[in-house]
Amino acid sequence: MSPYLAAEDLSMFGRDPWWLIVVKAVFCFAFLMVTVLIAIVMERKVVAWMQLRIGPNRHGPWGLLQSLADGIKLMLKEDVVVKRADKAVYVLAPIVAAIPAFMAIAVIPFGPSGNEISIFGQRTTMQLTDLPIAMLYILAVASVGIYGIVLAGWSSGSTYPLLGGLRSCAQMISYEIAMGAAFASVFLYSGSMSTSAIVEQQADRWYILLLPVSFLLYIVTMVGETNRAPFDMPESEGDLVGGFNTEYSSIKFAMFMLAEYVNMVTVSAVTTTLFLGGWRAPWPVSTFWEGANHGWWPLLWFVVKVQLLLFFFVWLRGTLPRVRYDQLMKLGWKVLIPVSLVWLMLVATIRALRNENYDFADIALYVCAGVLAVLLLSFVADLYRDKAKRAEPPAGEPAAFDPMAGGFPVPPLPGQELPPVPRRRPRRERELIVSGGPDTHSDGSVGGSTDGKEASDG
């Protein structure tokens, strides 16, 4: 076996008694719910601070119980089912969106995979379970959650929710390809799809340093996957009122909001696991404190990293405007996917050379030579393209464009231009007309002065 492949040892999983499995499952659920409550208050407080507002300050000390009060309020509101809705799918959609959001946390390691902690005298791992294909499980679960949004938009029997559901489907397809390529780079470098093994491989250096492009790709795609600003097109209130959840109220609306924030926590935990060393202490702490990665301390480092990534979500929402939908699709298909595929091939080449025991200097030389060759070919192609454009005969005059063709206003096609719009009169001329200037009379038979100044003098 290659020394660069991770040795997956999952023998410590699956040995816990049933009551301990229940305790750990309840802990995972409670961790998500408490983190969601904290994230909602933090978002409202931070955005208020950015916008020079006070923010929530009534419920609880410093408004810390605002998110809990919002949840109670939503549960007590009237539950309305619209008349044209497909009732079965309409009710099922929030459940389909919420449940998969909780499932991904099952394979996230909160601490070392060894028997490091004791719960009621039972030695166990700080992870519910692990799989040889744990990352594929996370991808599959994240994909299922999108169906809840699509079904909600379709079953509402309304136009705006339908458009929001279609946007969510297209957005998921566009961004999951780049997300999978970013995952594949981590798989190639770690030699495993197990979350605990990936964290173990980051003992010396985190993958944010070894795979920075994969980290940036996943950061962008995770914002798109969670439908958060600036990629919140499925619920764009500016043009879709509320998007896929327009026709929802009460607890069903709350479940969509819960799914959004739980997904934020889940993708933050996945980012921490793949690129930020997981439960490992940061570099300065781990060097002078040997016990930083033992006992219950790894849980603290993991929570701090997740909270920093949640703050990143809030920071994006408070600073960036919502992009147009064509910009969203262009970024996904023309930027993220090509960059992720090129980066994946580069990482695969480097790993293959490392497995053949090539020196780092030789690998850097081969990589630089390949990059220079691609740049040279691109330069030559640009020269020939410009030469061909100059050799083309000049294009004729574009066809006349009628914006009311067929009786309906239509946009211009490529190469067509709108007819010039008549310019308004200068402001001074309009003021003269209103005050009785020379344009106020229609003919000489009207008994009025032809000049405002003469009339005032007379």
TrEMBL record:
Protein location: Cell membrane; Membrane
Record's signal peptide: none
Keywords: Cell membrane, Membrane, NAD, Quinone, Translocase, Transmembrane, Transmembrane helix, Ubiquinone
Ranges where the record places region Disordered: 394-458
HAMAP family assigned to the protein according to its UniProt record, in alphabetical order: NDH1_NuoH
Subunit and interaction comment: NDH-1 is composed of 14 different subunits. Subunits NuoA, H, J, K, L, M, N constitute the membrane sector of the complex.
Enzyme Commission number(s): 7.1.1.-
PROSITE patterns linked: COMPLEX1_ND1_1, COMPLEX1_ND1_2
UniProt keyword rRNA processing, yes or no: no
Listed transmembrane segments: 18-42, 89-111, 131-154, 175-199, 205-224, 261-279, 299-319, 331-351, 363-384
UniProt keyword Protein transport, yes or no: no
Compositionally biased spans, kind Pro residues: 409-421
PANTHER family for this protein: NADH DEHYDROGENASE SUBUNIT 1, NADH-UBIQUINONE OXIDOREDUCTASE CHAIN 1
Family according to the record: Belongs to the complex I subunit 1 family.
One protein family per Pfam: NADHdh
Function of the molecule: NDH-1 shuttles electrons from NADH, via FMN and iron-sulfur (Fe-S) centers, to quinones in the respiratory chain. The immediate electron acceptor for the enzyme in this species is believed to be ubiquinone. Couples the redox reaction to proton translocation (for every two electrons transferred, four hydrogen ions are translocated across the cytoplasmic membrane), and thus conserves the redox energy in a proton gradient. This subunit may bind ubiquinone.
Membrane topology of the entry: Multi-pass membrane protein
Protein name (Swiss-Prot/TrEMBL): NADH-quinone oxidoreductase subunit H
Record field: catalytic activity: a quinone + NADH + 5 H(+)(in) = a quinol + NAD(+) + 4 H(+)(out)
Leading EC class: translocase
